[in-house]
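User: My notes are a mess, but here's the protein and flavin-adenine dinucleotide's SMILES. Can you give me a structure?
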Amino acid sequence: MSERSFDLAIVGAGICGLAHALAAARRGKRVVVLDRDAQANGASIRNFGFITVTGQEEGECWSRALRSRDVWAEVAEAAGIPILQRGLLTIARRSEALAVLEEFAASEMGRDCRLLAPAAMDAIGDGLRTRDFAGGLHSPHELRVESREAIPRLAAFLKERHGVTILRGTVVHAAAPPALTTSRGKIAAEAVVVCPGDDFATLHPERLAAYGLTRCKLHMMRLRHDGFDTRLPPVMSDLGMIRYLGYSKLPAAAALRERLEIEQREHIANGVHLIVVRSADGSLVVGDSHHYAATPDPFAPTAVDDLILDEFALVFDGPAPEVVERWTGTYASAKDRLMLVDAPSDALRIVVITSGTGASTSFAIAEEVIADLYGPVA
Ligand SMILES: Cc1cc2nc3c(=O)[nH]c(=O)nc-3n(C[C@H](O)[C@H](O)[C@H](O)COP(=O)(O)OP(=O)(O)OC[C@H]3O[C@@H](n4cnc5c(N)ncnc54)[C@H](O)[C@@H]3O)c2cc1C
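Assistant: No problem, the inputs look usable. Here's the predicted complex:
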């Protein structure tokens, strides 16, 4: 590859890198995105494709999720990415969980959400064990896309509509504007944004070391389901309310945590909570679990999957659907932040989503980073 010149080079073609490419291309910048993999393979295609608003931490994260949801809606339409589900039904199986939902509904973040009695949940869709529920909360904000198809389509859209150059199979060994050293030669770029996902070792490891990063491994499954009610939105339950900061930071969450620690100790030890989303063929993507390590092992014990399926069986009626696919994913994690933007120089930014929120917040984060590099939109 002979030397080529761009306004902005982005390392990483996950959702974080592609979101930066979109924000810069919308300002007329000549953008190149480089990724070591021949096809999308990181966290961005292993997730639920669930653009979650309700449940995100109050403040910046929640606002970024709302903004990102709007960008997803625009881009999905323009790029031909199907929106497969909308909204979120958070189920309270216990009275303590209902108390969390009531507190949430009374907050600013709950403004457009609706508390539901179990009988009213039957009207949303069939197949739930509503007789066992204390209540629920319906949020209208969320979107669900099929990530393994949406991410390649987003990349193709950036290339075709915005003239973004995407160079796959290209490892970036050094990123210091105005030059990048890659496995396919040098690239010239006035500015660089590094979006490395959970690779903290290749580029600027000394900068990233300051953030005390680790990795989180998650178990995911696809279930065959011939009769899933297409009216149902994505579903979560009690265990999610002690993981999602928008709920878990509410005072009422303390009593829920106490009860869950007695009743679902194993689930909590494995970071298990339930998210269920539907795909175009009717199958369900179901997860997940959370295990932290600098280098997560590659093993996926079925006992962890069984914990996820236990919770599924307490939320949905009928026989357990067949598991047709299993995979794991990893993402970057930090104890004290949901994301980081590091600025080693005026023309270089390192952006890492250090939580399971990248699908939900990257578009907004990218707009902020691009505004920081090039100034606010006129
Ligand atoms: C199982 C699972 C479920 C999740 N569920 C949700 C959810 O429901 N909602 C939500 O909002 N978020 C969710 N997340 C989190 C979300 O998927 C991540 O936050 C997001 O995908 C991170 O995007 P990224 O672009 O930073 O990383 P990645 O998608 O991992 O992309 C990073 C890319 O950088 C490339 N790269 C790194 N270094 C180099 C280099 N030196 N040279 C070339 N290429 C390089 C890699 O090859 C990779 O393609 C989930 C994550 C997982 C794993």
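The chain has two domains: 4-44+148-211+337-374, 86-141+214-333.
User: Great, I'll file this with my notes.
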